[in-house]
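quick one, 235 residues, struct below
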Amino acid sequence: MISIGKPTILAIDSASNACSAALLIDGDVRRHEWEGMIRGHAKVLMPMISSVVGDYGYHNIDAIAVTIGPGAYTGIRIGLATARGLALASELPIIGVSNFKAVARGVSQKITDKRSILAILETKRADVYVQSFDSDLKPLSKPACIPPEKVVSEFNNLFVVASPVILTGDAVYKVVEALSGENNYEIAVGNGFTDASVVAYEGMERLIEDPTIGKGKMPGPMYLRPPDVSIPKTD
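---
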């Protein structure tokens, strides 16, 4: 049952080169842990969660918000599996949040004018994950996985308007290398990684809008591309 007032959200992220957990209480993130890392998410995620929940107790939490990708395959699975385990044990709903939406939201909280946001995420390959949003976080495009040199042509309408499009995400550097002086853009301040504190606010708003969210089918991963492994062939 949702608490009187704003819901309490436990948020977790392990889908990128970072791992974090946050507890949002009465509309504000009160407890938060974040650490940048390439691997080792499985080792640190539960200790982070235990630290932010602490003596507050799972019985006082209204929902769990977790990132679903795109990002690192192993990290996505770790986050979703952890969220599902906690949800089953505590009988809590799970709210899936895309990493695109999370990094875009981190930017939107810091701007006051109406500008588009282009979230560009690392694939650890030659291409990038990309999705665009307006300043109210309404998606302007579908999630995609494309070469960085094609970002300008695919999203040309964003780069030619008077107000510069804001580029954010941990793969911005790949796209900037392909841009020219004719492209109107601004790079968001920060490292571009997802942070559970932002995921928590997204989860809170989604739960307020729809109190039944997360009570049915559990969220699944957003991969956008097949893994770079193959099943061994048998004779």
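The chain has two domains: 9-98+194-209, 100-187.
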